[in-house]
Design goal:
By secondary structure, this protein is α/β, with parallel strands linked by helices. It has a single domain, classed as NAD(P)-binding Rossmann-like Domain (Rossmann fold, 3-Layer(aba) Sandwich), CATH 3.40.50.720. The protein is built from 9 helices and 7 strands, in the order βαβαβαβαβαβααβαα. Strands 3-2-1-4-5-6-7 form a 7-stranded parallel beta sheet, with helices on both faces. Bound molecules: NADP nicotinamide-adenine-dinucleotide phosphate. NADP nicotinamide-adenine-dinucleotide phosphate (NAP) binds next to helix 1 and helix 6.
């Protein structure tokens, strides 16, 4: 594994106010990389920045990344920094029947999980390529490896993230820019509550970060956890109808009954 500071002196972490993004931020700071923290909850970002202040420089940018134009505003706000590592992490899920989901919230999810990831990658990649060094990490999901009934649009956004990152890995080979899609299964964060899932056990966010940094520069994507790896690979072999039905059964167990009616 390359040392993280060798990618550049600054990292930008979206969704740094909670869960996996907070864990990425702490790990980057621990390795001596300065961090731009962005999400909507400014109080949380400021508290985390204060925690890291003795060790590295930080910049807090409170922003709703689901709004049109937000990626351009964010890129402008870091234009004076050498951002060598982009962690495209901000995202959320929605559990339940597709036709009952809030129309606005559904489109907000697609914008945040897909459009913003695409936009930030497009805006920050040229400088990395010009410098001949950089890293882009995209939080995909084990949910992106198969159709996920009762989380249909969320799973599709994560399939998008997975394909985007793997393709960018191939495009950027040999350029000095490493791209990685990270696909955890359930992780113990605010994700389940925000998505409206029933609580179920998950990995620690720090484990996701450890696996991601171990894989960065070595492969296009990594699935976190051996059971999730096995599932991600096994669905390639099964008939798609069977895979979709099994995934629906698994999801039904994780979604409150009222959201299934
Ligand atoms: N936890 C899991 O089970 C799991 C599994 C696979 C993949 N993932 C992926 O991992 C990523 C991080 O999720 P997490 O588990 O850490 O969930 P989390 O604890 O809910 O954190 C989500 C982060 O995204 C930020 N965010 C949400 N909406 C935003 C918006 N409109 N603008 C800016 N920031 C926004 C939140 O900050 P604010 O609310 O302060 O804006 C928060 O910092 C997501 O992309 C998720 O799809 C999670």
């Amino acid at each position: 594994m390359r040392s993280l500071p060798s990618y550049g002196s600054w990292a930008l972490v979206t969704g740094a106010s909670s869960g996996i993004g907070t864990a990425f931020t702490r790990a980057l700071a621990a390795s001596g990389v300065n961090v731009v923290l962005t999400a909507r909850r400014e109080d949380r970002l400021r508290a985390l920045a204060s925690e890291l202040a003795p060790r590295v420089e930080t910049r807090v940018i409170a922003l709703d990344l689901g709004l049109e134009g937000a990626p351009l505003r964010l890129a402008d706000a870091v234009a004076d920094l050498e951002v060598g590592i982009l962690v495209n992490n901000a995202g959320f899920g929605m559990a339940g029947r597709f036709e009952q989901a809030s129309y606005e919230r559904l489109l907000e999810m697609v914008r945040l999980n897909c459009t913003t990831v695409t936009a930030l990658s497009r805006l920050l990649l040229p400088a990395m390529r010009a410098r001949g060094r950089g890293a882009m990490i995209v939080l995909a999901s084990a949910a992106g490896y198969q159709p996920i009934a009762y989380g249909a649009a969320y799973g599709a956004t994560k399939a998008f993230d997975l394909m985007l990152a793997e393709a960018l890995w191939a495009e950027n080979r040999g350029s000095g820019v490493d791209v990685l899609a990270v696909s955890p299964g359930p992780v113990d964060t605010e994700f389940q509550a925000v998505a409206g899932e029933s609580p179920h056990a998950g990995a620690k966010p720090e484990e996701v970060v450890r696996v991601a940094f171990a894989a960065l520069g070595r492969k296009p994507s990594v699935v976190v956890g051996s059971a999730n790896k096995l599932r991600a690979w096994s669905v390639r072999l099964g008939p798609r109808a069977l895979v979709a039905r099994i995934a629906a059964t698994v999801m039904r167990a994780n979604v409150p009954a009222e959201a299934l009616r």
